[in-house]
Every structure is written in C-alpha cells, then in structure tokens.
Specification:
about 110 residues; 2 helices
Length: about 110
C-alpha cells in the first residue's frame, strides 16, 4: 500500500485480510510515514465494515435457509403452506430447565394409571 487509497478486495477472505492488517498496525504502524497513516486507517476501517457486512449477509442467508427448511418440512408433512414459519418440533423445545422431569400426560392424554 504505497500511500495510495486502497479498498478491500471483493471475494477474498475478509477475516484473514483484517487480521493481517491488525498485525501490521501493531507491529509496523509507527514505521509508516505520517501522511500515509490516514489512508491505512481508512482502509482498516473499510475492511472492518466489509467483515461486518459479510457476517450480516451470512446471518441473513442462514435465516432464509431456516425459513425454507420449515416450509419444506410443512409440505412434506402434508400441511398447507400458510406462509408462516413453523415453530421447532416439541422435541427441540424443552419444557423446563435441562434435566427436569416432564409432567405426566403432556401429550394431552391422561397419565397412565394402573
């Protein structure tokens, strides 16, 4: 980075790029000419913003996949597509703290007596 402005490259591993620059800032920042430090700082900021955008996009993609899987599960079970996301299966949702015994008859029936 010979003092010119430089924007984070698209398509490369943004996290590795940021880690490399953080290491440069710790070890070699003082060696950089004062007039170039603002360009380095701006590039570092843009790289951090690019990483945040990447993480946000990954989270959105994961959420979209979860919604799609819920719709697929509904259709496979023969339920009409209501356009809403199904809540997780009851097996996935504990009724109380981990390790706590579940109340009897939670399936809507009477407890097995006798």
């Amino acid at each position: 980075m010979q003092g010119e402005k430089f924007h984070p490259p698209k398509g490369e591993n943004t996290l590795e790029h940021l880690v490399g620059h953080m290491q440069q800032k710790e070890e070699k920042y003082e060696e950089l000419d004062v007039e170039y430090r603002s360009n380095f700082d701006q590039h570092l900021f843009e790289t951090q913003a690019a990483l945040q955008e990447f993480i946000y996009q990954q989270q959105q993609a994961q959420l979209a996949n979860q919604v799609a899987m819920g719709i697929i599960r509904q259709r496979q079970m023969g339920q009409p597509d209501a356009g809403a996301v199904m809540p997780p299966d009851e097996e996935e949702m504990p009724m109380g703290p981990p390790g706590m015994a579940q109340p009897m008859g939670m399936d809507g029936g009477m407890p097995n007596v006798g």
